[in-house]
Structure formats: C-alpha cells, structure tokens
Amino acid sequence: MKKNLLGKMVITGIISAAMLASTAASTWAADKSDKDVLRVGMECAYAPFNWTQDTDTTPDGSKAEPIYGSDYYTYGYDVAVAQKLAEQLGMKLEIHKVEWSSIGISMDAGDYDCIIAGMGKTAEREKSYAFTEPYYYRDNCIVVKAGGKYDDVKGLSDLAGTGCKVTTQLGTGWVPLLDQIDGAEQSGNYETTSECFMAISNGVADVCVVDVPTAESAALTNKDLKIINLDEKDTFKNDDEMVNVCIATRKDDTELRDKLQGAMDDIGWNDKEKMDELMDTVLTQQPAAN
C-alpha cells in the first residue's frame, strides 16, 4: 500500500513538474512573441494620418496593413512611419483600430502598446503617457465653407464679434483654441474630423480649427471646404503643443518608448524634409471615400 502511494506521489510529482515546465515555456513563448510584435493603436479614420480601405495596396503600390480583427486594411502617414520603425526593429506590425475618445484608455488596458495616431504632445498628456520626439511637425489652420460668409477671412481678428459657430475634434489640443475666437458660438465638437467637415458643409458650423494636412486631405474630395492659413501675426497663441506629433507609450513603458526613439534616430526620422515628402506622397494615395 505504501509502495503504491509512493509511486502515485512520484508520478504526480513528475506530471506537476512537466505541467509547470510547459506553463513556463508557454509564458516565455508568449512574452517573446509579444516582444516581437509592435502593437499600434490608431483611429484608422483620420486621413491623411491614417484611414481604412478595402484592399491591401495603394495606387503607388505601397502596402496597406491589415486592421487587427477585421477584413479591412489601413494606410496613411502613421502607418508608413510604423512600417519603417517595425522593419528597423525587426518586429511584426499589428495595427488596432480604436475610437479617438478611448485611444489612451485602450492602451492602458493592454489592447496595444503604443499610439501612432497624429497625436500632439501636450503638457496634459505627458502626465499620462511617455512620448518620443516628434515624427511629424504640422501647422494649424481654419476651414470654412467655400464661397460662404467667412471665405475672405485672413486672421482671427476678422472673426471677432461675428458670432461665428466654431467646432473641432473632441479630446484634442484644438479645443482650447476655440476660446481664442472672440465672441464665437460653440456649436459642439465631434468624435472625428470627418464629422467636423460635414458640419461646415451643411452649415451647422462656420469655422473648424484643425491641422493643415487633415484639412488638405478633406479638401481633395469636398469642394465645399476652403482652407485658410491665418496671418502669422493674427493667429492662435500657445498652439505649439499641437504642432509636435509624437508616438505615445504607457507612462511606465519607457523601454518601448526608447526603442522606438532609437529606431527613429537610426533611420534619420528627425528630418522635416523627409517628413513633408512622405506626407505629400500619402496625400495622393487615400481612397476618395476618405
């Protein structure tokens, strides 16, 4: 009886050890696998930085990336930069589509590990995330209805006291800029820039504050829109935070932030001329629907 009991204990011990070894191996493999994948969150709805399309190629033959968990693909400036960094790091790229309003929450929850989504580095965001240096520099502008009441505006002072209805995208650094338009009426902000531009087209809003590339992207397919680059002496103050577009990681994940920064340095992605050249290229690649 004792012999049988001892035998069972030995066998059980062997099985337990094997299970532990198997679990440890699986955990190690998962950890290794995770480290081999660059998991990126973006809207896939913010052309020309990122958009959704049906096919895996663009007009110039560039490769669009599959959107994780869907049958669709994504491309744009953010995707092209993510591809460059993943290649430099020897990692597989995995792109997750997420609403802008929850893009930080979903990263903190572990759905992906970094945000490459046209995000401006602001003092407020730096409290929650770790940021690389800029991977793009952009200028701000306003968008009005072509041929409309504000078609000939040159500077902010031209809008003062007009009671114009203003809008922008929710949760962005442009929201505080709306208050700099003296006497403007807040018409409500939107989840996406596409909705902002639609509000301009249908007269729900008169002025949209946004960045130049996004405005240029929209104007390619929406002839109702007119882009106004405000006079540099009569423009927004303290809008520098929205100019620097950076990659964000979780606040405590400085290891990944530094890896991404190292890859940016290695490929020379601190050259504004390179950045502008890529942006000019992707502007010509987006589907008409975007």
UniProtKB/TrEMBL annotation:
Start and end residues of each Solute-binding protein family 3/N-terminal domain: 37-286
DNA damage listed as a keyword: no
Keywords assigned: Signal
Entries under InterPro entries matching the protein: Solute-binding_3/MltF_N
Signal sequence region: 1-29
Entry annotated with the keyword Ubl conjugation: no
PANTHER family the UniProt entry points to: AMINO-ACID-BINDING PROTEIN YXEM-RELATED (PTHR35936:SF19), MEMBRANE-BOUND LYTIC MUREIN TRANSGLYCOSYLASE F (PTHR35936)
Protein's UniProt name: Putative amino-acid ABC transporter-binding protein
Taxon lineage: Bacteria, Bacillati, Bacillota, Clostridia, Lachnospirales
